[in-house]
Structure formats: C-alpha cells, structure tokens
Amino acid sequence: MRIRRWRSIEPAASPPAHPAHAHPTYGAGTGGRPLRPASGARRHRPRRSLLVRTAIGAGELALRSGLYRPDFSPARLIRAAQRRTGLEEFGDGFSVEGLRRLLRSYETEARLHAVGRIAAHADTLALLSNRLRLVADRRRHPEIAEQAIERPVFIVGLPRTGTTLLHRLLAQDPAHRVPHTWEILHPSPPPQRARAATDARIARAARGIRQLDRLAPQFQRIHAVGARLPEECIAILAHSFASDRFVAMHRLPSYQAWLDQQDLRFAYADHRRFLQQLQWRHPGRRWLLKAPAHLLALDDLLAVYPDALIVQTHRDPVRILASLASLVATLRGAFSDDVDPLEIGRDVAVRWAEALRRSIAVRQNVSGDRFVDIQYRDLLRDPIAIVRLLYARMDTPLDAEAERAMQRFLEENPQDRFGRHRYPLAPFGLDADVERRRYARYRTHFQVPDEDAAQADGGAAG
User: Fold this and answer.
1) What is the pTM of this model?
2) Whether the predicted pLDDT of 167 surpasses 60
3) Domain CATH number, residue 187
4) Does the pLDDT at position 146 exceed 60?
5) Which residue range is the domain that position 291 belongs to?
6) How many CA atoms lie within 13 A of 215 on its CB side?
C-alpha cells in the first residue's frame, strides 16, 4: 500500500464510532465517560523509581510548556516513518483504519502520562518503519514469498493457564522455530540462523526491554520477558494495527470495540508474511506460536492456516481473573497515572468470557482432530507427559536430547521463580460466584475442574 494523499487518512472530526453503551466498561447516559470506582475504591498506584518519577515530571513540564508534544496525526507519523526509512510502500495487511482508531484512542482515552505519550508515539513509528522495511525486503528477495508455512502449532487458552510455560518448554527442541522477541522488534533484514545468538539486534532489543523494566519493575515477576525468549503473536499482529497487544498495554475502549468486530483474516495473512520473513534464512521443522488472544479470532486464524494444530490450555477462570487483571493494571500503570482496577476487572471478565464463547462456536464447526485440549493441572503435574502427547499429535518423534533440554528448562525455571503473583478478586470489583456463573458454560463444555477461589492467584507462568 502506497500512501501519498495525507488528507485522506486524517481522522474525521466526528464522535467515536461506537456509542458508550456498546462497551462493557462504559455506562449508558455517561457521555462516553468511564464508570468511576465505587466509594472507597482504590486506584492502581505503580511503584516507580526516583529516576522514572523525575522523567515523567520533566516530560509533563515539557508538554505543558509546549517544548515537546508527540504528534499522533496518522499522516505525520506515516511521513515520519517514510523519512526515517527512505521507503514508501506499506504493503498489504496494513489497516489504516486501525491506525486511525488506535491513535485517536491514545489521544482521547488512554490517559497517558508524558513518558507514556512518548512511548506510544515511538512504538507506532517503529511499527510503521518495520512495515516499510518488510515490504522492501520482500521485493528485494522474492524468495521470501515462496516460503511455505506448514502445519504450525498455535497454543491458545486464557492467560495464566500455562500457555507461556508450554510454549517455552516446547521451544527447547532446536528443531522447532519460535519467533523471538528481538526478531519481532527488529525483523529487517531477515534473521540468519548462523547469527541467531550473536545478532547485534539482540542487544538492541534487550535495551528496550530494560526500559520497560524501569517503567514496570513488577512485570518480570508476572511474565518474564527477554530479547531471546519466545514472544506472543500479538506482537507480530501489531504491525497490522489490529492487535490485542495495544489493548493490554493501554486503556483503549473505542479501539478495542472496533478490533473485536473486525474480520481479521487480513491481519493473519500479514502474520503469515511476517513468519516467511523470519523463516527464509532461519528455517525450522515447524512453527510453534502462542497467544491467548487467538481465541477471539480462531475462525480467521484457521482460514489463513488451514493445516494448523490448535493446542488449548484450560483452567478454572475464577482462579486466574484477578491475576490477569493485575497483569493488565501493571502494564497500563507503566504508561498512565490513572489506572482504574474496577474498570479493568469488569473488562477482563467480560472480554475473556466472550473469547471463550467465540472459540467454542468455532470449534463446533471444525474437525476435532485439529485441536488438543490440555488441563492446567495435568500440565503442572507432568509436563513431559504432555509434551509426549503433543509430539504424538504432531506425528513427530521426540528425541532424547530434546527431552533432556526440556527437563533442564523445567529445573532451571521452577514455578514462581520471580515470586508468587497473588491477588484477590475484590480489588478488581470481581465476585467469585458471579464469575462462576459467567464461565459455567465454558467449564462444563471442557470439563474444567473447580479450584478453590478463596484467594485467586496466577500460580505458574501464563
């Protein structure tokens, strides 16, 4: 996609496309204002270092004085990316409408502090620049488009149900291919197998992750992130500007409402092109991919990857909702001083119930041999047994060296390695009985056992 007519992509001066009552965290008759916490409810207050607090304060002064103001105009950001790269073509799979709505939500809904505004602006510019470079690489090297993505494995399931543990465990087999964080952040030029451990982009990505650590020092305790660790597909889908990644990091109700109504086949086709880029000079036997958010669009995923194997993990939702809400609050608290735990609790409970409802509907119309269901308790009890089961379903032998590597991984990464992430439901306005009823159909459909919900927590890695 070549974009030249800047005026055509400026957001219209009109009210949001979705009325306030269309979103679960908004109330009818509020004029689009979020429902406020009940009397006595506490806002989320992230712990920050003196350095971070000073940077945010200095940024706020710069914004108020007019010395610096990140420009969230879609046209200007697109021009900036083109100037940065010297390129013009954004290719297929680029949602200009998604970009518009995302930037509008940043400006009007995200409640970003100064550093949050700078970070969101820089992230958008980086994604646009990556798109330009990916398209240029593909034109320069037509062989990239010839890469076959065959029989990929997608790990899905509610967050905090073992998806990360399973993904990183299976990634210990060197014959498999996973997208690493550094490759997604810096996908051009195409990564090479010979430099997989020494590429200079690894250090560059690590520096960026350290910046997130400073803004949200608690996040590593909840979900470990590293330049050379496998990363979720939402980071790839972000390059289409149709991704749950933005929603996890920022309060974006209008963008989220738009995203949840989209046919995302265009984004998954772009996801496939991204994998081709990564695979060209660094192939593997099979792609291992992961994102809980795939539950919201399994039909679109399967339309693009008709030979995919879907591995779905299951755990009592009541047990993980507070942990998930806390994760979202921690991420959003890195970029905003105004994070409402009650709003997050409602949104998390409603949205993930909808994700499960959609996934059940899709699965009722797809052959059962395309899916493998894993109970969280079974994964924790004997993870290697689960691995053997999955290799059998993949019709792939599990060699002894790969199994030993997985055993070492389990020994070196015990449960709660970074400390236990424990939160009750009440601070997020959630009630165990209400949530049991909300998720009853899912638990019955997949025979998910009830866990003691007296103190909901995250337990093992998500």
Assistant:
1) 0.87
2) yes
3) 3.40.50.300
4) yes
5) 6-32+44-445
6) 25
